[in-house]
Design goal:
Elements lengths: L13 H24 L3 H13 L3 H28 L2 H20 L1 H9 L5 H22 L3 H7 L9 H29 L8 H13 L5 H9 L4 H23 L26 H13 L2 H21 L2 H7 L5 H28 L5 H20 L7 H64 L1 H20 L9 H5 L6
Length: 494
């Protein structure tokens, strides 16, 4: 059967509309990918920070927890902000501020030394952890200015019948960004910095820090980090430069809605009487029905919490787990996590295609199968012998990455459909709060479980969380594809 051209009603405006659609997708993809350059760099820097300053998993866990909560609330707050300020301005400003925060992070040690009058010892380390936490938390707030503009802009350019496929392509942006970030930062950690491996006192200090933190093969790991002392700083400074360029790129190249370039609105996306009643009362009622009292929006958001615990448990802690438990070099760990992300790109594309072509746009049904697959691969990973080869370890994580990124992408797409294009940013903002509460809980769970019980029990915890998520998604099996029919039934006169 020949597919209907949903853009045909645009008439002579069809061609320029599709050109701007492609432009919008590409610019937001590149822009959002760059956000991950100044976000996922922290994961690659953490092993170096543990080696040089003895920072524990618990400390990192608390930083990740608070930062994730801040990020979630930031996404929610900025979901409202993009209704009042142009999305491209919010997005460009957010990336600029992330760049500033990352530059500041690289000088956190210098500031700690100025405050304490020393560059070592318990007071210095505590001060550095505090300063590091403040900067990461600020950076996470600025990170929350990245997704809401995209959630608001893209439904204005992509028809609901194509949203899953094209947004799945768009959602590969964070995987591309994270992949490039871990590869670049893995390279930085393995090649840059100052070589102090000939300094026995420094090597001994690093060995002590790593031994105290339960790192496998601490002596050899200490030599590797000593050869590139201070490399972690460049994990923040180089991505910050890229972010500055990205901010300017977004500001110049992006437009929020078709009307901003003289084009008509999307066909088949009428909001009933809403457009005729855009007073404050009508907006409030629309949002209340389509977001706050929408059972499907809330179920998606709760599912998102559990998806993020699983995904971020692997992504945030992968480099540390692989170096400390599996004895990998930091560059090898970077490649393994990058393979996880690349598999996520393929998995996201497949999930989007399958949603539109196999499940008629019902993303929640595809999410069920994806989470089942992720659970199976994580279970296999749990029972891998500690001395398993680099190749086998990577292959299993590739399978997990292929499966787990589908739900992460599809939940945002489904929320855009359920809440309609008008309230998609707010619905995704709510999902962001719960998702990053999940990411924060992931940080605490992994940090404490790893320090108290070991890395094996970390993966057992993640598997249990994944099973809970499966049951939540199954409860949505009969949910509709979108909320446009519901939006047209709202009576604004009541």
């Amino acid at each position: 059967m020949e597919k209907t051209d949903v853009y045909k009603p645009l008439g002579p405006q069809r061609k320029p509309f599709l050109k701007w659609q492609m432009r919008t997708i590409l610019i937001t993809m590149i822009g959002y990918a760059i956000f991950y350059f100044v976000r996922k760099n922290f994961s690659l820097a953490m092993p170096g920070l543990t080696a040089e300053y003895g920072i524990t998993n618990k400390s990192f866990g608390w930083i990740i927890f608070i930062g994730s909560l801040v990020y979630g609330f930031s996404r929610f707050i900025n979901g409202y902000l993009v209704d009042k300020i142009k999305g491209r301005i919010v997005m460009a400003l957010g990336l600029f501020l992330c760049a500033v925060a990352n530059f500041a992070f690289g000088f956190g040690v210098n500031l700690s030394a100025m405050i304490t009058g020393t560059d070592h010892g318990a007071d210095f380390t505590s001060t550095f952890i505090f300063i590091m936490g403040i900067i990461i938390i600020l950076n996470q707030y600025f990170q929350g200015m990245g997704y809401p503009p995209c959630a608001r802009i893209l439904p204005h350019w992509i028809h609901p019948s194509e949203l899953a496929t094209k947004m799945s392509i768009w959602n590969t942006s964070h995987s591309v960004g994270a992949t490039l970030a871990v590869l670049i930062c893995g390279y930085i950690m393995g090649t840059m910095g100052v070589n102090l491996s000939s300094n026995p006192a420094w090597v001994a200090q690093l060995t002590t820090h790593l031994t105290d933190n339960g790192v496998t093969d601490a002596a050899n790991q200490a030599l590797a980090y000593a050869s590139h002392t201070g490399a972690w700083r460049w994990c923040f400074w180089i991505p910050a430069c890229i972010a500055l360029a990205g901010s300017l790129f977004i500001l110049i190249g992006l437009r929020d809605e078709p009307k901003d370039v003289g084009l008509p609105d999307l066909p088949d996306t009428s909001l009933g009487h809403y457009t005729d009643a855009k007073d404050k009362k009508a907006r409030k009622k629309f949002e209340m029905i389509m977001v706050w009292k929408n059972r499907w929006v809330w179920t998606f958001c709760i599912a998102n919490l559990f998806v993020y615990i699983v995904r971020m448990g692997i992504l945030d802690w992968g480099p540390k787990f692989l170096t400390e438990s599996r004895g990998m070099k930091i560059a090898e760990a970077g490649w393994t996590v990058a393979a996880f992300e690349i598999a996520g790109i393929v998995g996201t594309l497949f999930a989007g295609w399958a949603t539109d072509h196999l499940f008629k746009g019902k993303a929640h049904r595809m999410c069920v199968f994806s989470m089942v697959g992720a659970t199976l691969f994580m279970t296999i990973f749990r029972f891998l012998p500690q001395n398993s080869s680099f190749l086998l370890t990577t292959i299993i994580l590739i399978g997990a990455g292929f499966c787990i990124y589908g739900p992460q992408a599809l939940i945002g797409i489904a929320l855009g459909n359920q809440a309609t294009k008008e309230a998609s940013a707010r619905a995704n903002g709510l999902a962001g709060i719960l998702g990053y509460i999940g990411a924060g809980l992931s940080g605490l769970l992994v940090g404490y479980v790893a320090d108290l019980y070991g890395w094996t029990h970390v993966f057992e915890t993640i598997i249990v969380v994944a099973v809970i998520c499966i049951f939540i998604l199954v409860s949505m099996w009969q949910a509709p594809r979108d909320g446009y029919e519901k939006s047209q039934s709202i009576n604004y006169d009541e």
